[in-house]
Amino acid sequence: MLHVKKPHITYKQKNSKELQIFVDAIQRAEKMNGIGDVTSPDYLITLTFEDKTISKYTLWLRNEGGYLMNEMDSYHIYKLPKDLIDDLNKIVE
Predict the structure, then answer these.
(1) Which of 14, 24, 33, 75 has the highest CB neighbour number within 10 Å of its CB?
(2) Residues 26-62 as b or e (16 or more Cβ within 10 Å = b)
């Protein structure tokens, strides 16, 4: 992931609206059939929880749609819900 460029944005609990959009996107993403042939991701999302565990996701995001992949499950790609694409784009602008 060294090719993922800045800016790096950090959201904390005070940004609960933004965090909830990411959580909703992860929870509602639809698993795609087959193995994804993907380009370099647009973003890397690192979620750090209160118990210090970490989850990392790669994110491909365009105006017309987006995809997500869990770093621990790189064989599967998930399509993001269309109704969250605009909100996700606003967060990462």
Answers:
(1) 24
(2) beebeeeeeeeeeeebebebeeeeeeeeeeebbbbbe
Q: For the sheet with 30-31, list strands across it.
A: 30-31, 78-79, 66-70, 54-61, 43-48
Alpha-carbon span 54 to 92, nearest angstrom: 20
pLDDT of residue 18: 80
CB 41 within 8 A of CB 3: no
> Of all residues in the chain, what percent carry a pLDDT higher than 90?
26
Does residue 67 register a pLDDT over 90? yes
Look at the block and give the residue holding tokens 């609960």. Answer: 16
Please report the DSSP string for 24-86 in residue order. Answer: HHHHHPEEPSS-------SEEEEEE-TTS-EEEEEEEE-SS-EEEEETT-TT--EEPPGGGHH
